[in-house]
Amino acid sequence: MRFRIEQRFDAPLEDVEDAFVDPELVAELGTHVELGAPRLLRREVEADGDVVHQWIAHRFTGDLNAAVRRVIDPKRLTWVEESTHDRATHRTTWRIVPDHYASLLRCSGTFQLEPDGGDSDGGGGERTRRVAEGEVKVNMPLVGSKAEKGIVSGLEEHAVLQAHVLDEWLTRRRKP
Questions:
Q1: 99: left (phi over 0), alpha (psi -120 to 50) or beta
Q2: What CA–CA distance (Å, rounded) separates 89 from 128?
Q3: Is the dihedral of CA 103, 75, 39, 90 positive or negative?
Q4: How high is the pLDDT of residue 122?
Q5: pLDDT above 90 coverage of the chain, percent
Q6: How many CA within 13 A on the CB side of residue 94?
Q7: Is residue 35 classed as helix, strand or coil in its secondary structure?
Q8: Which residues pair with residue 122 across a beta bridge?
Q9: CA 14, 20, 23, 25 torsion-angle sign
Q10: Which fold does the domain 2-174 belong to in CATH?
């Protein structure tokens, strides 16, 4: 199942991009159970500083359809998000690597950051748009498409919460 998710942030592109590769933001996101308590496992910055690789552990916090729960234990739905952030193009490629059920799930995609013009109240502040495009495939007869829809729904909910946390985090960091 292909998907597209848009997020908007009340901050300039550079600030948003810096945040997504800042270990402190991952630690902040990790305090939010509803976001799966992400945890930074590893971070590597290439010599020029334009490319950042990250490995972030996640766990599923949504609801699973009863048919899916017959074959999938929600407690074992953990994974690592492997991502490469290219700061020159403002593009991130990512993939999900399941800790369990690896033969059942494939998920990967991109995030693209772009300026989003002034703020909605006409104050002229910079905003940023982040567009996620990807594909999720669940290899389970009869219930695979339902599981895919559930995963995408969870990703959409996650994106809304993540945008809220990021905006608050950036606001706190801007204050003297």
A1: alpha
A2: 14
A3: positive
A4: 47
A5: 58
A6: 26
A7: helix
A8: none
A9: positive
A10: Alpha-D-Glucose-1,6-Bisphosphate; Chain A, domain 4 (3.30.530)
* Two tokens, residue 155: 């990703």
In degrees, rounded to 5, the angle at the alpha carbon of residue 159 between the alpha carbons of residues 72 and 11 is 160
Q: What is the DSSP letter of 15?
A: H
* Mean pLDDT, the chain, whole residue set: 88
Question: Smallest Cα–Cα separation from 51: which of 97, 23, 91?
Answer: 91
Pair 40, 58: CB distance under 8 Å: no
Q: Are 131 and 114 in contact (CB under 8 A)?
A: yes
Residue type, position 175, single letter: K
Distance CA 51, CA 43 (A): 11
In whole angstroms, what is the distance from residue 96 CA to residue 92 CA? 13
Q: Write the pLDDT tens digit of every residue in 14-58.
A: 999 999 999 999 999 888 877 778 999 999 999 988 999 999 999
Per-residue pLDDT of 129-142, as tens digits, reads: 999 999 999 998 88
Whether residue 123 is predicted with pLDDT greater than 70 in this model: the reply is: no
Distance CA 95, CA 81 (A): 6
Residues making up the chain, counted from first to last: 176
For residue 33, the 8-state DSSP code is G
